[in-house]
Amino acid sequence: MALFPKKIKFRKSQRGRENPKKERVATRGNKISFGSFGLKAQENKEIKVNQIESARKVMARFFKKSGKMWIRVFADKPVTAKPPEVGMGKGKGDPAGFVARVRPGAILFEIDGLDEKTSREVLRKASAKLPVKTKIVSR
Predict the structure, then answer these.
(1) What is the pLDDT of residues 3-12, one digit of tens each?
(2) Is pTM beyond 0.85 here?
(3) Quick check: 113 and 37 in contact, CB under 8 A?
(4) Which residue segment(s) compose the domain that 102 sits in?
């Protein structure tokens, strides 16, 4: 499953800047909209494509015939990396992959169609695959 954009306007993007004294929280995508249980981010982080995919695979194992899953984050920010053992200078590195910027309060995944105990277990296992602290929330 391709969790990165088909086409982007610019190959490389700038890192951006955050004020460490000011806690920026998610104002969009911070409520459960589709399912009955969700995984909510508790901190600022960048989540890589392979981490989102890994969490998706763990969750998919639990949905045999019933249940549905929604991925509420999308990795659309290109990240660059320079090859190993290359000195400083000589420009910016080549695009290495994509990340999704996540703010505290953002809903990452939603699920529906499973009982509460199973739902919490599914989301707990998915959260272990992510680099961000999370909380399981219900509608």
Answers:
(1) 789 999 999 9
(2) yes
(3) no
(4) 37-82+94-138
